[in-house]
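Can't paste images in this forum, so I'm doing it all in text. The chain is below; anyone willing to post the predicted structure tokens underneath?
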Amino acid sequence: MLRGNAADEIVRTAGEEEIDLIVIATHGRTGLDRLIFGSVAEKVVRLAPCPVLTVASRPTKEENKEARLEKGESAMPEEKTDKRKAYQEKVEIQLKSGVPRSMT
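Text version of the structure:
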């Protein structure tokens, strides 16, 4: 067990042990999350004395569901299909009536 900054310790150990390849998982955070939580993987990629393979972690089914809800998408595929059908019907009515979409 090492103590210290994770990225710095990984890079230091890789140099000392003459490591050929570092494989590291990444959450793929961007924006504010990345600024707040930092990116160990990014720092390792920049500083490592050898090639680095980054592996994106897969979100769980629950995380996927939460992400869809945050984007305003339906949690249930059939609900999404119903919304799509309703929108399609609305557009077809507008096209048949000759009313521009921007007017509705």
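The beta strands are 22-26, 52-56. The chain has two domains: 1-57, 61-104.
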